[in-house]
Amino acid sequence: MAEANRAYETGDLEALQRIWNEYQDTQDDIEGEDIGAALVRIIRQISLAKDRLSTIERELEILRGSEIALLQKQAQASAQDGIDLLEQLAESVQEQIDLAKKEFNALSSQEEASNG
């Protein structure tokens, strides 16, 4: 149920459809304890497992292509060259913050001068 709620909240229609299909498959339980019924249950379980594996593989591909994954790859490659990419990025962001503060202070000073 928690997985269905997450899928609903994120608008993941594919996940909702998969969850619904799995639910439907479990609702069509095969009655009986004979070999045929057991075989049908096992085949359904295998099918559900294959579907889930396919979904996980697609999700992994999406994650591997995400910006954070690419950043991680770049950081690892830079680390092999003795470069701390994340430290460089932090320094760059700090420089941008410092520049923005200077610009803000300059604009504030101009406004005070024109109002004063």
Describe the SSE topology:
Layout: H1 2-10, H2 13-27, H3 35-64, H4 67-80, H5 85-115
Short description:
This protein is an all-alpha fold and 116 residues long.
Query: What's the overall geometry?
Result: elongated
Fraction in helix: over 70%
Rg calc? 28 Å
User: What is the CA-CA span between the terminal residues?
Assistant: 64 Å
Q: Give the strand tally.
A: 0
Mean pLDDT: 86
N-to-C order of helices and strands: HHHHH
Number of contiguous helices: 5
Regions with little confidence, pLDDT below 50 for 5+ residues: none
Q: Helices and strands: which structural class?
A: mainly alpha
What is the strand content? under 5%
Q: Quick one: biggest sheet?
A: none
Characterise the protein shown here.
The protein is mostly helical. It has five helices and no strands. It has helices at 2-10, 13-27, 35-64, 67-80, 85-115. The longest helix is centred in the C-terminal third of the chain and has 31 residues, at 85-115. It is elongated, with a radius of gyration of 28 Å. The relative contact order is 0.05. The mean pLDDT is 86.
List keywords for this structure.
116 residues; single chain; mainly alpha
